[in-house]
């Protein structure tokens, strides 16, 4: 039986609107779920919209593992203009005509940014440098140099291209793209780097996340819908959707929840969701030296 005043154990898949921070969404969910034990699996910038996975109560312990999953984005990249933040919310630092950019050059630039690449994150990001967020250092006028990090861009496709014009009449070029990428990839950094490779600069003007791991927009609810009827995905269903599954019997379940490491049957790499009798979600484990090492126990 749950304590009075605690929320449901599960995930809430939110379709985040533009103009609100991920922390702002968490604050709304705390009020709706009736608990402060709420977190999210991967920040979306205020400008961005789409899938934001929120964990409530015990499901917050799933979030660190969900953050390792891949994601899908629909975005618009504007070529010919560079900004401080690599997106439309930052101050414009340069405007260059993109009139001479050809589809062939765009295709080559996109191909070079597809696969396993080294990416320098956006300076205006939440990455910490000596204990301070990079965006805070930039805001304070400090020069920030971030190290390149390995990320995987498994799909980077252009499915729309149209001319645009700057306020002073300079020809720009908008690209509508779809990106599948690993956690930690900055789509606005892809826009920046694509523009740089084409010699005209680039930034992001729109970003919508359509998938986080197995969770998609089809499962997502707007904040207005959640205000009317709070809906969550129970923790067992959430774990079954996100991780490989291992079903065990009553005796093994008893040992596992009491901290005993079970002999592994040859589990898939990474976290595995363990279920006992009657569909009871017990734990996340991973195989190590032939044993199932608990990552988090939920029973």
Automatic annotation (TrEMBL):
Ranges for domain tRNA pseudouridylate synthase B C-terminal come to 188-229
HAMAP family according to UniProt: TruB_bact
Q: Write the protein's name.
A: tRNA pseudouridine synthase B
Keywords linked to the UniProt accession = Isomerase, tRNA processing
- Mention one GO molecular function: tRNA pseudouridine(55) synthase activity
Q: Name one Pfam family in it.
A: TruB_C_2
Reactions catalysed, semicolon-separated, are: uridine(55) in tRNA = pseudouridine(55) in tRNA
Question: What organism, scientifically named, is this protein from?
Answer: Peterkaempfera bronchialis
> What's this chain's function?
Responsible for synthesis of pseudouridine from uracil-55 in the psi GC loop of transfer RNAs.
Residues in tRNA pseudouridine synthase II TruB subfamily 2 C-terminal domain copies: 243-298
Per UniProt, the enzyme's principal EC class comes to: isomerase
Q: Which InterPro entries match?
A: PsdUridine_synth_cat_dom_sf, PsdUridine_synth_N, PUA-like_sf, PUA_sf, tRNA_psdUridine_synth_fam2_C, tRNA_psdUridine_synth_TruB, TruB_C
The Pseudouridine synthase II N-terminal domain, residue ranges: 30-187
Q: What is its EC number?
A: 5.4.99.25
Q: What are the positions of the active site?
A: 45
**Which family does the record assign?**
Belongs to the pseudouridine synthase TruB family. Type 1 subfamily.
GO aspect biological process, one term: mRNA pseudouridine synthesis
